[in-house]
Design a protein that fits this description.
604 residues, alpha+beta
């Protein structure tokens, strides 16, 4: 296998001349710079806010999505791009960035521009231009007396979105259900590029079961969750084909009605009525409705009831438990263990415990039973652990008091790791796995690190120390997002204050300072001094020649004011001008006298 080129100059030349040109060549060049020892992620910008800070599509949103920051300004700092203004200054509940690949664009159309979808005032869906922040479309969903919308997500990524009511119903859309309100959720489906209303329907207890507590749409499935822990999957395509009554187009008059679709006062119609439970494609009973489907071949991963902390991986086709398919850690930690399918499209599984991150792959065997094989383990534990210390204080009366910190009290009964793993994710454009961890090095001191790991071996390639924007040693939330040469850290303190720290990829400052402070060579120093010495010598020679000429003219009886040389003083130049003016005046007087004498002689 040919080794990849690690030289940036050679990679640029190969891309220029088309040698082994690949679509990801520019990302490989940037990856080389990211992993280079001479380049680091440097903190360039910090901003605090009393409201939540969100990052969507590589941009940072403050004040409930109203102020947008991004791009590259002076010293690589993000700049204020635009402000979103909503009608009647209503609050933006949630938002979603939708953009399409340039090669998939058809004829120019505003509906295919990169858009920023958001739910405003719990009853409006608004689409803004992602680049300029201009309001492009607004759709009135439903009156607030019926339900509130506060959740927006992808149904099929890049194709359709789903809006979900997240508050308890205060009324019913259909008058039939008014006497016995049993609506669990209301879901509205839209296609994007351009935006098109697909349909809206209710999830009711009378159809899906009295113990139904929640419902959501994702990846073409309708998922219902029940109080008993049962999770059921239904086909969304089947629901649209069988229970959809009629098509409704936005901003047009509804069928056999006077109302306009997507406009006040009625909003969207309920054009999908589910009268009976659709066929169940898959169901499983799990703890806290934690279910994930993925892998290659298809498997599902869940936590069985009363087995918190363990994850079982089973085949989606046969339902058999895979060999070594129970992922469990015996270590205790402040946070519960997590397991998820890796987003690098390899079908591997990430298992995150209190000290390490393990990567597993699904291996097919000759029998019908698959096998879970561990690929590598990333140990994130540090050797130096937090010490249990106390602080001795004295009261005004002289009484001795020993105060123990909160972190030390936790360690008194149970030995817990002095670390918290916050984020584990995959950067698809750089093909790197990254982790962010907080370490408690003392009672009131904490350090945070971001590490890049090889996606195939788990080897730690680079480590970046993150800033601590708050004085508190522990934070409620610490979220990190990596986007090529930019790292965005969002921290929430226990007192409800938010902070955002932005890091940019830059060359090391030490090397730049060494280059500027580097002593010059002796030859260069002499050359730089030579012109100055020549100027001094020329000035001295001019002064000496001027003095010799002045002495010579004084011996001849002439005034010094009549002579000047280039580079002489201002007084000498002024005296020369006065001398010239006096001479010209005398010559003009002599000429006038001569003319008068000639006229007198002519008259005589």
């Amino acid at each position: 296998m040919e080794e990849k080129c690690r030289n940036v100059y050679q990679q640029i030349r190969r891309r220029e001349y088309g040698v082994k040109k690949r679509p990801r060549s520019k990302f490989e060049i940037l990856k080389t710079l990211v992993l280079d020892e001479n380049y680091v992620y440097k903190e360039v910008w910090t901003k605090y806010s009393s409201k939540g800070i969100k990052t969507e599509g590589g941009r940072i949103y403050f004040e409930n999505y109203t102020n947008c920051y991004g791009g590259y300004g002076r010293d690589n700092k993000p700049v204020h791009l635009h402000s979103l203004s909503t009608p009647w200054e209503q609050k933006i509940e949630t938002a979603l960035v939708a953009s399409i690949q340039p090669e998939k664009l058809s004829l120019p159309h505003k509906g295919e521009r990169p858009s920023f979808f958001c739910i405003v005032g719990k009853c409006w869906l608004m689409r803004f231009d992602w680049i300029t922040g201009q309001l492009l479309e607004e759709v009135y969903l439903l009156p607030r007396t019926h339900c509130h919308f506060s959740d927006l997500s992808w149904n099929e990524p890049g194709a359709s979105i789903v809006l979900r009511s997240t508050h308890k119903m205060t009324g019913c859309i259909r008058q039939v259900e008014a006497d016995r309100p049993n609506v669990v959720k209301v879901l509205a489906l839209f296609d994007v590029f351009p935006i098109r209303f697909t349909g809206m329907f209710e999830v009711t207890k009378s159809v899906f079961g009295d113990d139904t507590v929640d419902a959501m749409a994702s990846s073409g499935f309708l998922t219902t969750m029940h109080r008993s822990g049962m999770v059921k999957l239904h086909s969304m395509e089947y629901i649209l084909q069988k229970y959809k009554l009629y098509e409704a187009e936005l901003y047009t008059r509804l069928q056999n009605q006077e109302e306009i679709c997507g406009k006040q006062p009625c909003g969207l119609p309920l054009n999908i009525i589910i009268k009976e439970e659709p066929p169940v494609l898959f169901q499983v009973k799990c703890h806290q409705n934690s279910l994930e489907v993925g892998g290659c071949p298809w498997h599902f991963m869940y936590t069985p009831p009363r087995k918190e902390g363990s994850f079982h991986v089973k085949s989606l086709v046969s339902g058999q438990l895979a060999k070594n398919g129970v992922l469990k850690s015996e270590e205790l930690g402040l946070d519960a263990d997590r397991a998820q399918f890796c987003t690098d499209e390899t079908g591997r599984i990430l298992h995150i415990d209190s000290k390490s991150v393990s990567m597993h792959r699904i291996k097919e065997t000759k029998s019908t039973k698959s096998e879970i094989e561990k690929c590598f383990t990333i140990n994130l534990e540090r050797k130096d652990k937090a010490q249990v210390t106390s602080t001795d204080t004295y009261t005004s009366s002289g009484r001795h008091v020993t105060r123990i910190s909160f972190w030390s009290m936790i360690h008194m009964d149970v030995e817990l790791p002095n670390m918290v793993i916050h984020n584990v994710d995959y950067e698809d454009e750089l093909d790197l796995l990254w982790t962010s961890v907080d370490y408690f090095i003392a009672d009131n001191d904490m350090e945070s690190y971001l590490r890049f790991h090889d996606n195939n071996t788990g080897e730690t390639i680079k480590e970046i120390k993150l800033a601590q924007p708050f004085v508190e040693s522990m934070n409620e939330e610490n979220e990190v997002k990596v986007d090529l040469d930019t790292v965005v850290q969002t921290v929430k303190s226990f007192n409800g204050e938010f902070a955002c720290v932005v890091y940019r990829l830059q060359a090391k400052v030490e090397e730049q300072e060494q280059n500027t402070d580097k002593p010059r060579r002796k030859g260069a120093k002499l050359e730089n001094n030579q012109p100055r010495e020549s100027e001094d010598s020329s000035t001295g020679s001019q002064n000496s020649s001027r003095s010799r000429r002045a002495q010579r003219r004084s011996r001849e009886g002439e005034s010094d004011e009549e002579w000047t040389v280039p580079g002489s003083s201002s007084e000498t130049r002024h005296s020369r001008r006065r001398k010239q003016r006096g001479t010209s005046e005398r010559s003009s007087e002599n000429r006038q006298t001569a003319r008068q004498e000639s006229r007198r002689r002519t008259k005589e």
